[in-house]
Amino acid sequence: MINVCITGHRPNKLYGYNMNNSKYDCLRKVIYNVIEKLYYKYNKRITLINGGALGVDQIFARESIKLKDRYNSDIDSIIKLILVKPCMNQDVKWDNNSKREYIDICNNMDDIICISKEYTKSCMQKRNIYMVDNSDIVIVVLNNSNNNNNDDNKSGTSNCYNYAKNKKDKDIILIDPVSFNVTIIKKDEKKRDIY
């Protein structure tokens, strides 16, 4: 069984809050293709871990649900979906549509882990650390052309990516949300190859 988590930007750092934007369709397809390849590569046994946040986390959650629904009837298939919430009231400031989407995602998870009862400054980082520490592969949706941008380097996505890079036992799959290129950094080589 392989454990895979994701980190990535919120909608304001991607293509905006209109999830019908065609760029989101492209990102959904790329994410689905990556997790389906991993599913087959690891003998149809995969745990998919998301952080529940708006944007990439929820896209990953939806594509994970789609993968599980597609292969649900395969008796050799084991697909486990886990949501790691930073705090109990993660969705407290979200609009009603986002809250409904979040509830539906939660209802489709096999397990929900909550890091903190209430929001603290550190609960997001603790959530990211938990996800990376409990994964073999970390998918990172990060605009590589913005890596020199000071604001982006302070983001939760960049922090999570840097934490995963410093772990010697993780493969990292990078998805560029502008070009939709997918690359992998192998734990044993630390060299980029096209995935």
Describe this structure in words.
The protein is an alpha/beta fold and 195 residues long. The protein starts with a strand and ends with a strand. Mean pLDDT is 91; it is low at 147-151 and 191-195. α1 (22-41) packs across α2 (56-71) and α4 packs parallel to α6 (156-166). The protein has one domain (2-185): Rossmann fold (3-Layer(aba) Sandwich). It has helices at 22-41, 56-71, 96-107, 123-133, 150-153, 156-166, and strands spanning 2-8, 45-50, 78-87, 111-116, 137-141, 171-175, 182-185, 192-194. It is globular and about 40 Å long. Strands 4-3-2-1-5-6-7-8 form an 8-stranded mixed β-sheet, with helices on both faces.
| Amino- and carboxy-terminal Cα gap | 20 Å
Number of strands: 8
The radius of gyration is 16 Å
Oligomer: single chain
Strand-residue fraction? Answer: 15-25%
The figure for the number of domains is 1
Query: At the first level of CATH, what is the class?
Result: Alpha Beta
Number of helices: 6
Q: Would you identify the regions where 5 or more consecutive residues have pLDDT less than 50?
A: 147-151, 191-195
InterPro entries: YspA (IPR010697)
Pfam families: YpsA
